[in-house]
Amino acid sequence: MNMPKIWMRGLALLLVVLSASLAQAQGLSIDIVNGTPSALPIAVVPFAFEGAGVPPDVDVSEIMRNDFNRSGKFRGLPKADIIEFPTRQSEVKFATWNLLKQAYLVVGRVRDGSNGELTVEYELFDVAKQQALLIGKPISGQRSDMRGLAHKIADDVYEKILGVRGAFWTRVAYITSSGSGNNMNYALMVADSDGYGPQTVVKSHEPLLSPAWSPDGNKIAYVSFERGNSAIYIQDISTGSRELVSANKGINGGPSFSPDGTRLALTLSYGGNPDIYIMDLATKKTTQITKHFAIDVEATWMPDGQSLIFTSDRSGKPQLYQASITGGDATRISFQGEYNATPSIINDGRSVKIAMAQGGGNVYRVAVLDRASGESKMISPGSLDEHPSFAPNGSMLIYAATEGSRGVLYAISADGLVRQRLVLADGDVREPAWSPYRKR
Fold first, then answer.
1. Which of 16, 92, 240, 290 is most buried when burial is the number of CB atoms within 10 A of its CB?
2. Per DSSP, what are the bridge partners of residue 74?
3. How far apart are CA 376 and CA 345, in angstroms?
């Protein structure tokens, strides 16, 4: 594969129907393929069931342990190595967990709640200090949502220890396809951040592309070819209602919500060349941002909402540029590597970081550019990695990779030390987008 080919894929997908034969999404499986010994050791003891009915079929502690392991910040004690099973503070023997070299300990129990719900109570301890950090904190929900409760508890523990909100109780959107030839089927899917619970947002016999979350996490903008040409829709993922927002002549692509959710950056070519525009979602009025003979695509908002980062080949090869939403010349911001594209941006509280697909020749990997230091670090090991998307707390990214003829997703810690594969059992998945925080 030559260098520009990967970057041109997104544009080409706006014009042609994909021909790959892919299986329909049924779920994602998880493999931890790397790890880091420097992560904080934490033991999550299996939670006792103290209710009157049948125990839930979801192991809350196991889900939490997996969350911590894939974050890169923690190393969960394997269940097989747990030798005591306290369920509350009065049963904890700190000497045992000191011998097991655990920094933190989580215990808990599940009991019956009101209105048919289950209530989970949990406690978090600093083992070295023999000190409780969270005591008997209850959280309730339906029996069918025990996975969600586990993610919420893991988020609370993560935030209590690290001072940063956890992002386990979030979602990812992605595109799948199945069939071949004239029988291709495409789907925009949404699943939990660990790949479980996939749900179909929309299906089509024509290609679907470029899912982008609204800042409140309630809507997704995407590109569909169901009208015979590219068009951009915004769909409410809870009600299924959707709105056609752009169906101009030529390319309608690359939607990206502004940080306040009132505007949409997009690529339009009705003027004769693919350029970046901003649409006011209340009036649908568009303002042209770039005016250049080069191809400008994949616009993403900076966190302050005052400028856009986009991909352009105006320097001869795809690179990232920054343009103010008030106009003026664009400034090139990526210089390391022959090729930089598909930006994702996060402010992690210390600086703005931009993830991108970076490479040259036949190797393309995910790199993260720190805007404060100007340093760029390659974090993925693959040979054809693309479409990175930051978790809302900046601790992890999800990206698409090609293994043989198959598209898979990986979640990777922001430092690149922990990587987890999210892959369909028999199929293919591409173009991931990590959701914002859910309202708690």
1. 290
2. 40
3. 14
